[in-house]
Amino acid sequence: MRLSSLLLAVAVPFGLLALPVGCAGADDPGAETSSTGEDADAVDELRAFNIDDDDSGKTFTVQEGQNVTLKLSSNPTTGYKWVIVGTDRTFGYPAKDDFVSSGSGAVGSGGRQVMTWKTKGGLSMVGKHTVSLEYKRSFGNDPPAKKFTFTVEIEKPGGATCAAVRCASGTHCEMKGINGGALPVCIKDAAQGACVKTGCSGHVCADRDMFTTCEMRPEYGCYRAAKCERQADGKCGFTQSKELQACLNR
Fold first, then answer.
1. What is the reported pTM?
2. Of 161, 95, 159, 85, residue with least CA distance to 127
3. Could you tell me if 234 and 223 are in contact, meaning their C-beta atoms sit under 8 angstroms apart?
4. Measured CA distances, 230 to 196, 236, 239 (Å)
5. pLDDT for residue 210
6. For tag attachment on the chain, is the N or C end more exposed, with fewer CB atoms within 10 Å?
């Protein structure tokens, strides 16, 4: 009895020491996680080129590897759906074709049919591709209610530049690297400081104080009443009013 009690007393601590050694549970923050590809899908969605209802008949330039997403108004409760009636062998059909509800929750409410094409695969897709679609029912002989076409010109990475991009007011284009490539992206302009009259005689309009030589010239007096502000090119300068021009021409 004494020997068995001694063996039990020794075995229990060793058993306790062995408990932490095991597989981490699902809720264990230290457990290893596997990549599901969701992060990559999110990046693809962010850099996708979006085409919508107002873009029928237009041609767009995209970079190879950049997804093309078509979003068209649709209402499947009416029996109508956008159907591809024309494409080519390399660009083919969309990798995804989903319906996204408008979110109103009302019965019979519409939404958008969202189709996504990949622009890089087994065959090279570099070049122009035209896709034609019709909004029609799968039954009956009714003519299509609407038609839609678009053309994409796929370029090798580095082909797209800011020269072909028109940014909205208050933004400008910069080439941004994404997934090893570079795409032209419109970003918001940084806040600019106020323009000030500077220089020894106040004859310079700039966004910071500047040092100049001190000279007494008659034309410098014209700038005292002139307006110093940002011009159309975004740079500080004196607005060339009639009064300023007349003073300088004396």
1. 0.50
2. 159
3. no
4. 10, 4, 8
5. 82
6. N
pLDDT < 70: residue spans in the chain: 1-44, 46, 104-105, 158-161, 163-166, 168-170, 176-183, 189-191
> Which pLDDT value is given to residue 213?
80
CATH numbers and ranges of domains, the chain: 42-102+110-156 (2.60.40.2020), 157-190 (no CATH), 196-248 (no CATH)
**Closest C-alpha to 61, from 52, 53, 51:** 51
Residue 103: half-sphere exposure toward Cβ, Cα within 13 Å: 0
Nearest to 213, CA basis, from 203, 200, 222, 204: 200
What is the pLDDT, as a whole number, of residue 88? 94
Got the DSSP string for 104-132? ---TT--EEEEEEE-S-SSS---EEEEEE
Phi, psi of 80 (to 5 degrees): -90, 150
Please give the angle made by the CA atoms of 88, 60 and 76, to the nearest 5 degrees: 65
